[in-house]
Amino acid sequence: xxxxxxxxxxxxxxLYPPTPPTSARLDDFQVFKKGNASYIxxxxxxxxxVYPEPEMDTTxxxxxxxxxxxxxxxxxxxxxxxxxxxxDDTVSWLIECAVSQGFCEYDVPFxxxxxxxxxxxxxxxxxxxxxxxxxxxxxxxxxxxxxxxYDKLQARLSEEIHRQTSVFRYAExxxxxxxxxxxxxxxxxxHRLYTSDYKPNDSSLLPASDSSDDAEDVxxxxxxxxxxxxxxxxxxxxxxxxxxxxxxxPGRPKGSGKNRFKRPRSxxxxxxLRNLLFDERxxxxxxxxxxxxxxxxxxxxxxxxxxxxxxxxxxxxxxFEKFSRAMRYHYRQNVLVSVPTARxxxxxxxxxxxxxxxxxxxxxxxxxxxLQDMPxx
DNA sequence: TCTGCATTTCCTGTTT
DNA sequence: AAAACAGGAAATGCAG
Length: 377
What we know:
The protein is mainly α.
């Protein structure tokens, strides 16, 4: 089922690590890719399986930990859902989580977790464990803390999702006319969510997932393994040669059945489009609102949108043709609607995601610009 | 393990 | 003519 109208939804920009070192826009989408950069000790490292040497002075780290961890002891996070957490909320939760499990707060390198809730919720087990590593703390202890923290996080996340789902069953019937009601229901729900009886499943003693899974890419390489797998890709022009090569069967080519790893829940195609439209980095440069009041949007650079989708799904072979096929499947349920006369223009249907936004296409209103131009206002 | 859903891939034909 | 569109068919991956 698609959560078309989730109460809060991550923006594309929120999915990715803080200010990656490369300036290339598409690199923002590589957080799900195995072996790609992860943020630790203020630096990016390319391998989840090693514990890199921190660049910061380790003594300073420990000192920082001792002195500052109490600054984060506030309880704001308890009344919020995870995606609303600030980096301080994340740290507060982390410390309380570790302490409640009998660990010493000084063994938790909380400065590695100064991230917002969205980023935290997208962390994989390996990344949490890796961030937990500290040269002055026994590796096994760090690993254990990391695993428990990860399990607690997942338990909390699944409880949140469960709560959202039950709220939005109600909302799905008519998301537009009921929007206000739904919002108020959500607000109520949000505020009483974790104030009293939050009891996550205690799976902290489960064995750690096999991180070796991450060492290999489960998706096929961009080059076909054999001519038999992609017969139609042959561009020899030799008709007879073509006839000899059996056509590739329709459907996704078989990946490796083994070495599968869990990816974080990905957004659906309509949600992905909505998120791009909400993100100043992509709207209006590669996708933009054509008629916001009707939910109509236009692909400015369709190939780039498809590429982003492909990168998010770790699929280098994604094209706009395939992406648009996925979009067309959403016509059936009125999540998306075709706009016949205009090319590259689509429309969110009445069952589409909530696309309410203050400033479509991020066009500054005149008064705002005037205010900015005034030196002292 | 099974099932259903959301894709992914390829394809043929049509429209712009 | 090329690109975009439409939708069938078959396959995968994931979640329940």
